[in-house]
Amino acid sequence: MGFNYQNIRKDFPILDQQVNLRPWTYLDNAATSQRPIQVIEKIREFSVLTNANIHRGTHTHAIRTTEAYENAREIVKDFLHAKEREEVIFTHGTTESINLVAWSFCEKFLSEGDEIIVTEMEHHANIVPWQMACERHHATLKVIPFSDNGELKSELLTALISDRTRIIAVTHVSNTLGTVNPVKEIIRVAHSHNVPVLIDGAQSVPHISIDVQDLDCDFFVFSGHKIYGPTGIGVLYGKRAWLEAMPPFLGGGEMIERVTFEKTTYNELPYKFEAGTPHYVGAIGLGTAIQYILNLGLDHIASYEHHLLTEASEKMKALGNLQIFGETPSKTGVISFQLDQIHPFDLGTLLDQLGIAVRTGRLCADPVMDHYHVTAMTRASFAFYNTSEEIDRFIEALKRIRSMF
Ligand code: C6P
Protein backbone atom coordinates (compact mmCIF):
# COMPACT_ATOMS: atom_id res chain seq x y z
CA MET A 1 0.00 0.00 0.00
CA GLY A 2 3.00 2.32 -0.19
CA PHE A 3 3.48 2.92 3.53
CA ASN A 4 3.56 0.97 6.73
CA TYR A 5 0.41 1.41 8.79
CA GLN A 6 1.86 -0.14 11.92
CA ASN A 7 4.68 2.43 11.83
CA ILE A 8 2.10 5.16 11.39
CA ARG A 9 0.41 4.09 14.63
CA LYS A 10 3.61 5.06 16.44
CA ASP A 11 3.05 8.64 15.32
CA PHE A 12 -0.28 8.65 17.20
CA PRO A 13 0.56 7.80 20.82
CA ILE A 14 -2.99 8.58 21.96
CA LEU A 15 -4.20 5.46 20.15
CA ASP A 16 -1.98 3.25 22.29
CA GLN A 17 -4.09 3.13 25.44
CA GLN A 18 -6.86 1.15 27.08
CA VAL A 19 -10.39 2.30 27.72
CA ASN A 20 -12.51 0.21 30.06
CA LEU A 21 -9.67 -2.31 30.20
CA ARG A 22 -9.77 -2.89 26.42
CA PRO A 23 -7.50 -1.62 23.67
CA TRP A 24 -8.97 1.71 22.64
CA THR A 25 -10.52 1.62 19.16
CA TYR A 26 -11.10 5.10 17.87
CA LEU A 27 -13.75 5.12 15.13
CA ASP A 28 -14.95 8.72 15.55
CA ASN A 29 -12.59 10.35 13.08
CA ALA A 30 -15.27 12.32 11.25
CA ALA A 31 -15.94 14.20 14.50
CA THR A 32 -12.28 14.95 15.06
CA SER A 33 -9.06 13.23 14.03
CA GLN A 34 -6.10 12.52 16.29
CA ARG A 35 -2.88 14.51 15.91
CA PRO A 36 0.44 12.92 15.01
CA ILE A 37 3.36 13.46 17.36
CA GLN A 38 4.95 15.72 14.72
CA VAL A 39 2.08 18.23 15.16
CA ILE A 40 2.12 17.96 18.95
CA GLU A 41 5.90 18.46 19.00
CA LYS A 42 5.75 21.41 16.63
CA ILE A 43 3.23 23.18 18.86
CA ARG A 44 5.22 22.34 21.97
CA GLU A 45 8.54 23.42 20.48
CA PHE A 46 6.98 26.60 19.20
CA SER A 47 5.34 27.41 22.53
CA VAL A 48 8.55 26.69 24.45
CA LEU A 49 10.93 28.56 22.17
CA THR A 50 9.31 31.17 19.99
CA ASN A 51 5.89 32.46 21.03
CA ALA A 52 5.13 36.13 20.29
CA ASN A 53 2.21 37.99 18.73
CA ILE A 54 2.32 38.28 14.94
CA HIS A 55 2.36 41.22 12.52
CA ARG A 56 2.81 43.60 15.43
CA GLY A 57 6.39 43.56 16.67
CA THR A 58 9.89 44.19 15.38
CA HIS A 59 11.59 41.93 17.93
CA THR A 60 13.13 38.61 17.00
CA HIS A 61 10.39 36.29 18.20
CA ALA A 62 7.62 38.46 16.73
CA ILE A 63 9.36 38.19 13.37
CA ARG A 64 9.91 34.45 13.70
CA THR A 65 6.30 33.83 14.69
CA THR A 66 5.00 36.00 11.86
CA GLU A 67 7.19 34.12 9.39
CA ALA A 68 5.98 30.74 10.70
CA TYR A 69 2.34 31.86 10.46
CA GLU A 70 2.74 33.18 6.93
CA ASN A 71 4.62 30.01 5.99
CA ALA A 72 1.59 28.01 7.18
CA ARG A 73 -0.54 30.13 4.85
CA GLU A 74 1.78 29.18 1.97
CA ILE A 75 1.43 25.50 2.90
CA VAL A 76 -2.38 25.79 2.85
CA LYS A 77 -2.26 27.70 -0.43
CA ASP A 78 -0.20 24.94 -2.07
CA PHE A 79 -2.33 22.22 -0.47
CA LEU A 80 -5.51 23.71 -1.96
CA HIS A 81 -3.73 24.67 -5.18
CA ALA A 82 -4.95 28.24 -4.72
CA LYS A 83 -3.60 30.89 -7.03
CA GLU A 84 -2.57 33.43 -4.40
CA ARG A 85 -1.78 33.42 -0.69
CA GLU A 86 -4.14 36.39 -0.28
CA GLU A 87 -7.02 34.02 -1.04
CA VAL A 88 -6.31 31.97 2.10
CA ILE A 89 -7.94 33.32 5.27
CA PHE A 90 -7.35 31.69 8.64
CA THR A 91 -10.50 31.32 10.75
CA HIS A 92 -11.41 29.25 13.80
CA GLY A 93 -12.93 26.46 11.73
CA THR A 94 -15.43 25.46 9.07
CA THR A 95 -18.32 26.92 11.04
CA GLU A 96 -16.71 30.35 11.29
CA SER A 97 -15.62 30.25 7.64
CA ILE A 98 -19.19 29.61 6.47
CA ASN A 99 -20.59 32.24 8.83
CA LEU A 100 -18.05 34.72 7.48
CA VAL A 101 -19.21 34.17 3.89
CA ALA A 102 -22.88 33.97 4.82
CA TRP A 103 -22.63 37.32 6.58
CA SER A 104 -20.20 39.23 4.36
CA PHE A 105 -21.26 37.93 0.97
CA CYS A 106 -24.95 38.27 1.77
CA GLU A 107 -24.47 41.76 3.23
CA LYS A 108 -23.27 42.85 -0.18
CA PHE A 109 -25.05 40.59 -2.65
CA LEU A 110 -28.30 39.31 -1.09
CA SER A 111 -31.53 41.32 -1.34
CA GLU A 112 -35.20 40.81 -0.61
CA GLY A 113 -36.67 38.11 -2.86
CA ASP A 114 -33.29 36.52 -3.67
CA GLU A 115 -32.55 32.83 -3.20
CA ILE A 116 -29.79 30.62 -1.75
CA ILE A 117 -29.49 26.92 -2.53
CA VAL A 118 -28.13 24.27 -0.15
CA THR A 119 -28.59 20.49 -0.07
CA GLU A 120 -30.64 18.19 2.13
CA MET A 121 -27.46 16.46 3.37
CA GLU A 122 -25.71 19.53 4.80
CA HIS A 123 -24.25 19.72 8.28
CA HIS A 124 -26.09 22.37 10.34
CA ALA A 125 -23.04 24.63 9.86
CA ASN A 126 -23.90 24.87 6.17
CA ILE A 127 -27.61 25.46 6.73
CA VAL A 128 -28.13 27.75 9.69
CA PRO A 129 -25.81 30.64 8.66
CA TRP A 130 -27.62 30.79 5.28
CA GLN A 131 -31.00 30.61 6.97
CA MET A 132 -29.98 33.48 9.23
CA ALA A 133 -28.85 35.46 6.18
CA CYS A 134 -32.20 34.74 4.47
CA GLU A 135 -34.05 36.00 7.56
CA ARG A 136 -31.95 39.19 7.67
CA HIS A 137 -32.39 39.93 3.98
CA HIS A 138 -35.89 38.47 3.42
CA ALA A 139 -34.57 35.88 1.00
CA THR A 140 -35.52 32.21 0.47
CA LEU A 141 -33.55 29.02 1.11
CA LYS A 142 -34.01 26.26 -1.48
CA VAL A 143 -32.86 22.67 -1.06
CA ILE A 144 -31.48 20.00 -3.42
CA PRO A 145 -32.81 16.66 -2.10
CA PHE A 146 -31.02 13.30 -2.02
CA SER A 147 -32.22 9.76 -2.78
CA ASP A 148 -32.57 7.05 -0.16
CA ASN A 149 -29.20 5.56 -1.14
CA GLY A 150 -27.59 8.88 -0.18
CA GLU A 151 -27.01 10.24 -3.67
CA LEU A 152 -27.59 13.92 -4.24
CA LYS A 153 -30.23 14.59 -6.89
CA SER A 154 -27.91 17.11 -8.49
CA GLU A 155 -29.78 16.84 -11.79
CA LEU A 156 -32.49 18.94 -10.08
CA LEU A 157 -30.11 21.85 -9.64
CA THR A 158 -30.84 23.44 -13.02
CA ALA A 159 -34.56 23.53 -12.21
CA LEU A 160 -33.87 25.06 -8.77
CA ILE A 161 -31.61 27.84 -10.05
CA SER A 162 -33.47 31.00 -10.95
CA ASP A 163 -32.43 34.51 -11.87
CA ARG A 164 -32.77 35.27 -8.13
CA THR A 165 -30.20 32.65 -7.03
CA ARG A 166 -27.25 34.43 -5.44
CA ILE A 167 -25.13 31.56 -4.06
CA ILE A 168 -25.09 27.76 -3.76
CA ALA A 169 -23.52 26.07 -0.71
CA VAL A 170 -22.78 22.34 -0.97
CA THR A 171 -20.89 19.86 1.12
CA HIS A 172 -18.12 18.04 -0.73
CA VAL A 173 -18.58 14.95 1.48
CA SER A 174 -21.56 14.31 3.75
CA ASN A 175 -20.59 13.85 7.42
CA THR A 176 -23.52 11.45 7.82
CA LEU A 177 -23.78 9.50 4.56
CA GLY A 178 -20.16 9.68 3.44
CA THR A 179 -21.38 10.59 -0.05
CA VAL A 180 -18.82 12.37 -2.23
CA ASN A 181 -20.83 14.91 -4.19
CA PRO A 182 -20.12 15.80 -7.83
CA VAL A 183 -19.05 19.29 -6.87
CA LYS A 184 -17.13 20.04 -10.06
CA GLU A 185 -20.26 19.45 -12.13
CA ILE A 186 -22.40 21.43 -9.66
CA ILE A 187 -19.97 24.35 -9.95
CA ARG A 188 -20.03 24.11 -13.75
CA VAL A 189 -23.83 24.26 -13.82
CA ALA A 190 -23.94 27.08 -11.26
CA HIS A 191 -21.38 29.13 -13.18
CA SER A 192 -23.31 28.70 -16.40
CA HIS A 193 -25.99 30.72 -14.56
CA ASN A 194 -23.39 33.11 -13.07
CA VAL A 195 -24.00 31.79 -9.57
CA PRO A 196 -21.00 31.35 -7.21
CA VAL A 197 -20.53 28.17 -5.14
CA LEU A 198 -19.21 27.55 -1.64
CA ILE A 199 -17.87 24.05 -0.98
CA ASP A 200 -17.86 22.73 2.59
CA GLY A 201 -14.70 20.64 2.58
CA ALA A 202 -14.72 19.70 6.28
CA GLN A 203 -15.12 15.99 5.49
CA SER A 204 -13.27 15.92 2.17
CA VAL A 205 -9.85 17.45 2.88
CA PRO A 206 -8.63 14.52 5.00
CA HIS A 207 -9.41 12.08 2.18
CA ILE A 208 -9.45 13.78 -1.23
CA SER A 209 -6.82 15.89 -2.95
CA ILE A 210 -8.23 19.40 -3.50
CA ASP A 211 -7.51 21.75 -6.38
CA VAL A 212 -9.66 24.84 -5.97
CA GLN A 213 -8.58 26.18 -9.36
CA ASP A 214 -9.52 22.97 -11.13
CA LEU A 215 -12.83 22.80 -9.24
CA ASP A 216 -13.26 26.50 -9.96
CA CYS A 217 -15.15 26.89 -6.66
CA ASP A 218 -15.65 30.43 -5.39
CA PHE A 219 -15.22 29.50 -1.72
CA PHE A 220 -13.83 26.40 -0.02
CA VAL A 221 -13.81 25.90 3.76
CA PHE A 222 -12.37 23.35 6.18
CA SER A 223 -11.29 22.77 9.80
CA GLY A 224 -7.81 21.93 11.10
CA HIS A 225 -8.96 19.39 13.68
CA LYS A 226 -10.46 17.04 11.09
CA ILE A 227 -7.21 16.90 9.15
CA TYR A 228 -4.90 15.82 11.98
CA GLY A 229 -4.25 19.42 13.05
CA PRO A 230 -5.25 21.45 16.12
CA THR A 231 -8.73 22.57 17.09
CA GLY A 232 -9.67 26.23 16.84
CA ILE A 233 -8.06 26.76 13.45
CA GLY A 234 -9.74 26.61 10.06
CA VAL A 235 -9.51 27.97 6.57
CA LEU A 236 -11.59 30.01 4.20
CA TYR A 237 -10.40 29.99 0.61
CA GLY A 238 -12.12 32.59 -1.55
CA LYS A 239 -11.48 33.86 -5.04
CA ARG A 240 -9.80 37.23 -4.76
CA ALA A 241 -12.54 39.06 -6.66
CA TRP A 242 -15.22 37.95 -4.18
CA LEU A 243 -13.08 38.62 -1.11
CA GLU A 244 -12.20 42.08 -2.40
CA ALA A 245 -15.87 42.87 -2.99
CA MET A 246 -17.11 41.59 0.38
CA PRO A 247 -17.16 43.84 3.47
CA PRO A 248 -15.12 42.70 6.52
CA PHE A 249 -16.84 40.29 8.90
CA LEU A 250 -15.28 41.18 12.26
CA GLY A 251 -13.80 44.56 13.15
CA GLY A 252 -10.71 45.08 15.29
CA GLY A 253 -6.94 45.04 15.22
CA GLU A 254 -5.01 44.09 12.07
CA MET A 255 -8.01 44.24 9.74
CA ILE A 256 -7.66 48.00 9.44
CA GLU A 257 -5.48 50.28 7.36
CA ARG A 258 -6.27 53.49 9.24
CA VAL A 259 -8.75 54.31 12.01
CA THR A 260 -10.20 57.71 12.84
CA PHE A 261 -13.45 58.43 14.64
CA GLU A 262 -14.86 59.73 11.37
CA LYS A 263 -13.90 56.81 9.15
CA THR A 264 -11.95 53.55 9.10
CA THR A 265 -10.29 52.10 6.02
CA TYR A 266 -9.55 48.40 5.80
CA ASN A 267 -6.41 46.36 5.38
CA GLU A 268 -5.63 44.40 2.23
CA LEU A 269 -6.31 40.68 1.82
CA PRO A 270 -6.01 38.36 3.64
CA TYR A 271 -5.77 40.55 6.78
CA LYS A 272 -9.08 42.31 6.11
CA PHE A 273 -10.77 39.11 7.31
CA GLU A 274 -8.39 38.29 10.17
CA ALA A 275 -9.41 40.70 12.94
CA GLY A 276 -7.70 40.36 16.31
CA THR A 277 -4.85 38.07 17.32
CA PRO A 278 -5.25 34.96 15.20
CA HIS A 279 -4.72 31.42 16.43
CA TYR A 280 -1.20 31.48 15.00
CA VAL A 281 -0.01 28.45 16.95
CA GLY A 282 -2.96 26.55 15.50
CA ALA A 283 -2.11 27.72 11.99
CA ILE A 284 1.49 26.56 12.42
CA GLY A 285 0.26 23.18 13.74
CA LEU A 286 -2.12 22.92 10.78
CA GLY A 287 0.77 23.53 8.40
CA THR A 288 2.67 20.64 10.00
CA ALA A 289 -0.41 18.38 9.82
CA ILE A 290 -0.82 19.11 6.11
CA GLN A 291 2.85 18.34 5.49
CA TYR A 292 2.39 15.09 7.40
CA ILE A 293 -0.47 13.82 5.24
CA LEU A 294 1.21 15.04 2.06
CA ASN A 295 4.24 12.96 3.05
CA LEU A 296 2.02 9.90 3.41
CA GLY A 297 0.34 10.74 0.11
CA LEU A 298 -3.37 11.51 -0.18
CA ASP A 299 -3.79 8.85 -2.89
CA HIS A 300 -2.34 6.20 -0.59
CA ILE A 301 -4.54 7.41 2.24
CA ALA A 302 -7.65 7.32 0.03
CA SER A 303 -7.01 3.81 -1.26
CA TYR A 304 -6.25 2.40 2.20
CA GLU A 305 -9.34 4.06 3.72
CA HIS A 306 -11.44 2.73 0.86
CA HIS A 307 -10.18 -0.75 1.70
CA LEU A 308 -11.19 -0.18 5.37
CA LEU A 309 -14.62 1.10 4.30
CA THR A 310 -15.27 -1.90 2.05
CA GLU A 311 -14.12 -4.38 4.66
CA ALA A 312 -16.17 -2.79 7.45
CA SER A 313 -19.30 -2.41 5.28
CA GLU A 314 -19.19 -6.04 4.15
CA LYS A 315 -18.65 -7.39 7.65
CA MET A 316 -21.40 -5.18 9.07
CA LYS A 317 -23.89 -6.25 6.40
CA ALA A 318 -23.03 -9.88 7.04
CA LEU A 319 -24.40 -9.41 10.57
CA GLY A 320 -27.92 -9.07 9.10
CA ASN A 321 -30.67 -6.70 10.23
CA LEU A 322 -28.28 -3.78 10.06
CA GLN A 323 -29.24 -0.75 8.00
CA ILE A 324 -26.48 1.43 6.54
CA PHE A 325 -27.51 4.99 5.69
CA GLY A 326 -25.76 6.09 2.52
CA GLU A 327 -24.50 3.53 0.06
CA THR A 328 -23.33 5.46 -2.95
CA PRO A 329 -20.43 4.03 -4.98
CA SER A 330 -18.42 7.14 -4.25
CA LYS A 331 -18.11 7.51 -0.49
CA THR A 332 -15.48 8.09 2.16
CA GLY A 333 -14.89 6.06 5.33
CA VAL A 334 -18.10 7.02 7.12
CA ILE A 335 -20.71 4.39 8.04
CA SER A 336 -23.89 5.58 9.76
CA PHE A 337 -26.10 2.69 10.70
CA GLN A 338 -28.91 1.19 12.76
CA LEU A 339 -28.48 -2.24 14.37
CA ASP A 340 -31.72 -4.13 15.05
CA GLN A 341 -33.94 -1.89 17.19
CA ILE A 342 -31.09 -0.91 19.54
CA HIS A 343 -31.16 2.80 20.27
CA PRO A 344 -27.95 4.52 19.09
CA PHE A 345 -27.32 5.98 22.56
CA ASP A 346 -27.47 2.49 24.12
CA LEU A 347 -25.27 1.12 21.36
CA GLY A 348 -22.72 3.94 21.70
CA THR A 349 -22.54 3.52 25.47
CA LEU A 350 -22.13 -0.25 25.26
CA LEU A 351 -19.50 0.06 22.53
CA ASP A 352 -17.60 2.41 24.81
CA GLN A 353 -17.76 -0.22 27.55
CA LEU A 354 -15.95 -2.45 25.07
CA GLY A 355 -13.34 0.23 24.34
CA ILE A 356 -14.81 1.40 21.03
CA ALA A 357 -15.48 5.08 20.32
CA VAL A 358 -18.17 5.93 17.75
CA ARG A 359 -20.47 8.92 17.40
CA THR A 360 -24.18 8.71 18.17
CA GLY A 361 -27.04 11.17 17.92
CA ARG A 362 -28.34 13.47 15.24
CA LEU A 363 -24.86 14.06 13.83
CA CYS A 364 -25.56 17.81 13.42
CA ALA A 365 -27.68 16.88 10.42
CA ASP A 366 -31.36 17.00 11.44
CA PRO A 367 -32.63 17.04 7.84
CA VAL A 368 -30.81 13.74 7.18
CA MET A 369 -32.47 12.22 10.27
CA ASP A 370 -35.82 13.51 9.01
CA HIS A 371 -35.19 12.03 5.57
CA TYR A 372 -34.88 8.55 7.06
CA HIS A 373 -37.51 9.17 9.80
CA VAL A 374 -35.06 8.33 12.57
CA THR A 375 -34.26 10.26 15.73
CA ALA A 376 -30.58 9.31 15.83
CA MET A 377 -27.88 7.22 14.17
CA THR A 378 -24.67 5.49 15.17
CA ARG A 379 -21.65 6.44 13.07
CA ALA A 380 -18.30 4.71 12.70
CA SER A 381 -15.72 6.71 10.76
CA PHE A 382 -12.23 5.67 9.72
CA ALA A 383 -8.82 7.23 9.32
CA PHE A 384 -5.61 5.90 7.80
CA TYR A 385 -4.35 4.81 11.22
CA ASN A 386 -7.25 2.37 11.73
CA THR A 387 -6.64 -1.31 11.06
CA SER A 388 -8.49 -4.47 9.98
CA GLU A 389 -7.94 -5.78 13.51
CA GLU A 390 -9.92 -2.81 14.86
CA ILE A 391 -12.73 -3.49 12.41
CA ASP A 392 -12.88 -7.09 13.66
CA ARG A 393 -12.99 -5.84 17.25
CA PHE A 394 -15.86 -3.52 16.30
CA ILE A 395 -17.79 -6.35 14.60
CA GLU A 396 -17.28 -8.67 17.56
CA ALA A 397 -18.51 -5.90 19.87
CA LEU A 398 -21.67 -5.43 17.76
CA LYS A 399 -22.35 -9.18 17.95
CA ARG A 400 -21.85 -9.20 21.69
CA ILE A 401 -24.12 -6.19 22.26
CA ARG A 402 -26.80 -7.69 20.04
CA SER A 403 -26.75 -10.85 22.14
CA MET A 404 -27.47 -8.74 25.25
CA PHE A 405 -30.80 -7.44 23.87
N1 C6P B 1 -18.76 17.67 11.81
C1 C6P B 1 -19.13 15.55 12.90
O1 C6P B 1 -19.05 14.78 13.87
P1 C6P B 1 -16.42 22.60 12.84
O2 C6P B 1 -17.20 22.14 14.03
O3 C6P B 1 -16.59 24.08 12.58
O4 C6P B 1 -14.99 22.16 12.88
O5 C6P B 1 -17.03 21.80 11.59
C2 C6P B 1 -18.40 21.90 11.28
C3 C6P B 1 -18.73 20.97 10.16
C4 C6P B 1 -19.12 21.49 8.95
N2 C6P B 1 -19.37 20.73 7.89
C5 C6P B 1 -19.25 19.39 7.95
C6 C6P B 1 -19.52 18.57 6.73
C7 C6P B 1 -18.88 18.78 9.16
O6 C6P B 1 -18.78 17.46 9.22
C8 C6P B 1 -18.64 19.59 10.29
C9 C6P B 1 -18.30 18.97 11.63
C10 C6P B 1 -18.44 16.89 12.99
O7 C6P B 1 -19.72 15.24 11.87
C11 C6P B 1 -18.76 17.59 14.27
S1 C6P B 1 -20.47 18.00 14.41
Strand count, sense and barrel status of the largest sheet are: 7 strands, mixed
For CATH, the homologous superfamily of the largest domain is named as: Type I PLP-dependent aspartate aminotransferase-like (Major domain)
Rough outline: globular
The assigned CATH architecture of the largest domain is 3-Layer(aba) Sandwich
User: What is the tally of helical segments?
Assistant: 14
Bound molecule types: ligand C6P
Strand order of the largest sheet: 4-10-9-8-7-5-6
Spans of at least 5 consecutive residues whose pLDDT stays below 50 are: none
Write the CATH fold name of the largest domain.
Aspartate Aminotransferase, domain 2
The amount of helix comes to: 25-40%
Quick check: average pLDDT?
97
Tally the beta strands: 17
As a percent range, the share of strand residues is 15-25%
Whole-number tally of structural domains: 2
* Cα end-to-end separation: 40 Å
Indicate the CATH class of the largest domain: Alpha Beta
**Rg, Å, rounded:** 22 Å
Give the helix/strand class.
alpha/beta
Kindly describe this structure.
- The strands form five sheets. A seven-stranded mixed β-sheet has the order 4-10-9-8-7-5-6, with helices on both faces. The protein has a four-stranded antiparallel β-sheet with strand order 13-14-17-16, with helices on one face. It has a two-stranded antiparallel ribbon with strand order 1-2.
- With 405 residues, the chain is α/β, with parallel strands linked by helices.
- The mean pLDDT is 97.
- α2 packs antiparallel against α10 and α11 (298-317) runs parallel beside α14.
- 40% of the residues lie in helices and 17% in strands.
- Bound molecules: ligand C6P.
- Residues 30-31, 93-95, 123, 125-126, 171, 175, 200, 202-203, 223, 359, 363-364 line the site of ligand C6P.
- Ligand C6P binds next to α4.
